[in-house]
Amino acid sequence: MTRVHVVYAHPGGRSFTHKVLGTFLDALGASGHTATVSDLYAMGFRSVLTLEEYERESSYAADTPVPADVAAEHDRLDAAEVWAFIYPVWWADCPAVLKGWFDRVWTVGFAYKPTVRRARKALVLCTAGYSVEELEASGVHAAMRTTMLTDRIGDRAGSSDFVVFGSRVTGDGDAAERWAATKARHLSEVAAIARSI
Questions:
Q1: Cβ-Cβ contacts under 8 Å for 154 (sequence gap 6 or more)
Q2: Residue 15: partners with Cβ closer than 8 Å, 6 or more residues away
Q3: pLDDT in tens, 35-78
Q4: Hey, where are the domains in the chain?
Q5: pTM score of the predicted model
Q6: Which fold has domain 3-195?
């Protein structure tokens, strides 16, 4: 049994990203794994650093306590062997609430100075309105992957994977059928990833 902590960032309960979350959690449970979820929108997670938080970080004052919501995130992450980040790609990055989560939760003494390996594995599962091929051709895929895996995850996990579930389905003729087939294929891959943990 593996303990997984999911950081989820999407405001809508009917989105494809929400289906990715549900499929991932269902497959984890069916495989005997346990999961906790930080649903950032549902929690009303404050994504903006306060002046006090900024001063703590800029002076590397690891002995200064962090806010209670940040400490709770630290506890959830420390209790898990695997971290998963599930979100939609908006403007070539994660939603602002997740960027703010990293700003606030990756604190001195927890995420850096020193950098401590805290998870066995980190997974980034994101949805996009472009195909992976389009994202690769534009350079956006490489930029997103580098930002998430090199900067944000880095050595904090023993290994990390970045998977984009992308597709562009236009409104012509058989668009609904093609989108249904694409969704089914993506959700099957999500389930396989969860089972392989």
A1: 115
A2: 88, 127
A3: 999 999 999 999 999 999 999 999 998 899 999 999 999 999 99
A4: 3-195
A5: 0.95
A6: Rossmann fold (3.40.50)
